[in-house]
Amino acid sequence: MKLVFATNNHHKLKEVQKMLPSSIQLLSLKDICCFEEIEETAMTLEGNATLKANYITEKYGYDCFADDTGLEVTSLNGEPGVLSARYAGEYGNSEKNMEKLLNKLAEKTNRNAQFRTAVAFNIKNEKYLFEGICKGQILKKKSGDGGFGYDPIFRPEGYSKSFADMSFEEKNKISHRGIAIQKLVQFLNSL
Ligand code: IMP
After folding, report:
1. SS3 69
2. Ligand 1 pocket: which of 83, 148, 163, 173 to mutate (most atoms <8 Å of CB)?
3. Which residue has the higher pLDDT, 189 or 165?
4. pLDDT-derived band at 189, boundaries 50, 70, 90
5. Residue 133 contacts residue 178 (beta carbons within 8 Å)
6. Which residues have a catalytic role annotated?
7. Among 150, 151, 171, 176, which is best to mutate for testing ligand 1, by the most ligand atoms less than 8 A from CB?
């Protein structure tokens, strides 16, 4: 079965491909020659994931899933949330995003946070949503060189190291995206 994962983020593609049964061939946006920017204009993670999945299904005709992730910090009322990718203004500048977050948390004692992923899945004219949550804490400074995004400053609950200190496999087992994709995989296996 061919399935499009509506992303060109090679970190995510690698993470997700490892979790899927070998009978599923994962295609990226580049693989289907979709080079245009898909707008993420919704106010929620679910809304943005749905926008992306629907765009591909409607324009390219593929069964498709799309994800949107946000880091939700308790003492900042859920910030950066749906704005995680452009928290410091410039899209995808992880260094600046982390710096802004660390500055905002400098005086806070509560450093609890969660990553939350919404996955929208379109298959055979049906639409499904899956959610994955990983709870943890924001560290006071960066640790590790693995992963991407906010990984160096996020320590998952029950661990003494950051996501960026973990191997792909270790992170996948407990990560927000890993959990949401596991739900998608279970669903695919039940079809
Ligand atoms: P996206 O919409 O899923 O691409 O994620 C939005 C933002 O959250 C991006 O800027 C990423 O840096 C960040 N992000 C998403 N997933 C992760 C993750 O697994 N670890 C750290 N940061 C992430």
Report:
1. strand
2. 148
3. 165
4. confident
5. no
6. 68
7. 150
